[in-house]
Specification:
single chain, alpha/beta, ten-stranded mixed β-sheet, 23 helices, globular, binds pyridoxal-5'-phosphate
């Protein structure tokens, strides 16, 4: 749908407001005076800006095709610093006598590069890792080398898992086993006796406090993980019996991810602190209070307690945690514990950006409509003409109803063979003409009738984009999560089209049709008209958390190309790592094909075609070449 022109010149500032980049960009993303999205890894006050359009040209020169997932190392570095410095300030301001030791939960983004960077950047803060499975523990041990950082083991643990953790303790690491179910304790005790090292034990508790938000089923009495109070007492008694109360050192809970309301966070901290204090009174050694994850990301930039937002800043989160813990401990006259948090989403969300190009556009504007109905045309077509010609501001709703009615009648007639395809096509063209006119006119109404509300999305353009929603933005499909999306260039021009996005999976679910708006969720995204032949690039932001591993191979679109960027203080930047995405052969082998035998099989088919005189030997060579090139190629649309 084309927007009516507005008075006055379009400016970059108008684009900034329209796409809300200041609201969700957390000072890492902005727009330069050329109208290009820039990354500002050192914050808005530094004059280092990296234009994403420049990055696109750099990638092209290196032969990396769209779509490309960009990772900005510096942003990861900044977020880890931000979290740790924030806790440091809160600790200092309150004279809290314990420390903060953050851990990064690997499941949020397990890519090797991410782990390596987190341990490198986190070293100065002794930022540790949290694992939830054997594979994650094995991954963690390959990069972990800080005696002062915590290595927290959650999840179900078998003998192998426990032995590995105990060896880590033997090697001097602060590795904790968090007991999630009562039966785990026995296995841990048995293994520790065999290996001859005392375990560091934590307990995960079910809080009665429950948080709002999308992912917060982890809290509350029915949460599948954690011990209830009776089970905690059982654990304490078992440990007491064998004189090992000094092994119980950590209390853990996890409310769920993306907790939008600070009130829920505070209530949980208070309840957990009370339990911690009681465990100290029971004679447990304790020392660590682990508040889990939940620190939310403001995806829509609204700063509210909506699911995709949060009504607090990181600074407020840290200050509240410290104050609440301190107040409970002081009341109970107990030493201030080391505070651990397992913030994953907030640590990595900003780090990754998906760049993709637009391949094509469909619009729902009518073609040429003749002034008057053709002589001897069908009566229904004449009726549609009458509707079109009588359309005024005051009868919009009526015209809308009539247009729908006649359109449906036309379809009915067509089904019964009483209208030809050509006539039906003519009628539908007029129908779209009417709908577009209504959409235009309705903006002049003070109160838009509810029926006409959805009309904008009905006539929105469809922009076909070169990416797979299922591979790159799975939460948009699975749980309707909102992510910021916008063009990365042409922001000095007014976007005149309203659009929804379709990916290239040809699955009707492979679309994005809710977007971050100024005041609410919008059903369409303002975009620029494609200029003949010019490339048009969009970006989805804040994809660093959860999206990479949750992504799947729907329609056999594989991993995208990945490029990692390191920005220097002077504004230069390097592509420190380029990882080619999956080839067609790669994704086929994931679903049990053997590319080598596929080529062999196809060669036989081609040979048969020669025998039957369908192709020549020279053609066979060409065909085999195309097949093998296809196997080696990228799964996405290549130019
Ligand atoms: C998933 C998970 C986290 C991470 O939560 P975020 O909200 O992403 O910070 C932390 N701890 C545990 C136990 C988890 O399961």
């Amino acid at each position: 749908m084309k927007k009516s022109e507005v008075l006055g010149r379009w400016t970059v500032d108008k684009s900034i407001d329209l796409y809300g980049i200041k609201n969700w960009g957390a000072d890492y993303f902005s727009v330069n005076e050329k109208g290009e999205v820039v990354v500002t890894p050192f914050g808005k006050n530094s004059n280092v800006h990296i234009s994403l359009l420049d990055v696109v040209s750099g990638l092209k020169e290196r032969g990396l095709e769209m779509p490309v997932l960009l990772r900005f190392e510096n942003i990861l570095d900044s977020q880890i610093s931000y979290l740790n410095e924030s806790f440091r300030r809160a600790i200092k301001a309150n004279n809290y006598r314990g420390k903060y030791r953050g851990v990064y939960p690997i499941k949020v983004n397990q890519q090797q590069q991410v782990l390596e960077e987190i341990t490198r950047f986190g070293k100065r803060y002794h930022h540790g890792l949290e694992v939830g499975s054997k594979a994650e523990l094995i991954a963690a041990l390959s990069v972990f080398d800080d005696d002062d950082a915590c290595l927290i083991c959650n999840g179900y643990k078998d003998e192998e898992f426990i032995s590995l953790g105990l060896y880590a303790v033997k090697m001097g690491f602060r590795c904790f086993f968090v007991i999630e179910t009562p039966s785990e304790l026995e296995l841990i005790m048995k293994q520790s006796e065999i290996i001859g090292v005392k375990p560091n034990i934590g307990v995960r508790i079910k809080l009665s406090s429950k948080a709002g938000g999308h992912w917060t089923e982890s809290g509350g009495d029915r949460s599948i993980f954690g011990l209830n109070t009776a089970q905690i007492i059982e654990v304490v008694d078992s440990l007491k019996k064998c004189g090992m109360l000094d092994c119980l050192q950590l209390l853990h809970y996890h409310l769920g991810s993306q907790v939008p309301n600070i009130r829920d966070i505070r209530m949980a901290v208070v309840e957990a602190s009370r339990i911690y204090a009681e465990l100290v009174k029971e004679g447990c050694k304790m020392g660590y209070l682990d508040l889990g994850g939940g620190l939310a990301v403001d995806y829509d930039g609204s700063k509210t307690n909506f699911t995709n937002s949060r009504n607090y800043s990181i600074d407020e989160y840290c200050a509240d945690v410290i104050e609440q813990v301190m107040s409970v401990m002081d009341d109970a006259e107990i030493e201030h514990p080391i505070i651990v948090t397992e913030s994953g989403r907030a640590t990595v969300a900003y780090y990754s950006v998906l760049l993709f190009n637009v391949l094509d556009v469909t619009n729902f504007e009518p073609g040429e409509i003749p002034e008057a109905p053709p002589a001897d045309c069908h009566e229904l077509i004449e009726n549609l003409y009458d509707v079109m010609n009588s359309l005024k501001l005051k009868n919009l709703q009526e015209c809308y109803n009539d247009a729908l009615y006649y359109r449906d009648e036309v379809r009915e007639f067509f089904k019964h063979g009483r209208i030809s395809l050509r006539e039906r096509s003519f009628a539908e063209n007029i129908f779209w003409g009417i709908i577009n006119k209504i959409a235009d006119e309705k903006n002049r109404l003070k109160h838009v009738p509810p029926d006409l509300d959805g009309i904008d999305s009905a006539i929105a353009d469809i922009y076909y984009c070169n990416f797979s929603l299922f591979q790159s933005v799975p939460d948009s499909w699975a749980i309707d999560q909102l992510f910021p999306i916008m063009p990365i260039h042409r922001l000095t021009e007014m976007p005149t089209r309203d659009a929804v996005l379709a990916d290239i999976t040809c699955d009707c679910d492979g679309k994005i049709d809710s977007f971050i708006g100024l005041h609410d969720i919008e059903k369409t995204l303002p975009l620029h008209e494609l200029k003949n032949g010019d490339e048009y690039f969009l970006s989805t932001f804040l994809l660093g958390a959860y999206q990479e591993t949750l992504g799947d191979l729907h329609n056999l679109f594989g991993d995208t190309n990945v490029a990692s960027i390191h920005v220097y203080e002077n504004g230069d930047y390097d592509f420190v790592r380029e990882i080619e995405g999956d080839s067609v052969a790669d994704v086929l082998s994931y679903v049990e094909y053997v590319p080598k035998s596929m080529v062999e099989q196809f060669r036989k088919t081609a040979e048969k075609a020669i025998r039957h005189g369908k192709i020549t030997v020279a053609e066979r060579k060409e065909i085999m070449n195309a097949y093998e090139t296809g196997l080696r190629g990228y799964t996405y649309f290549e130019k």
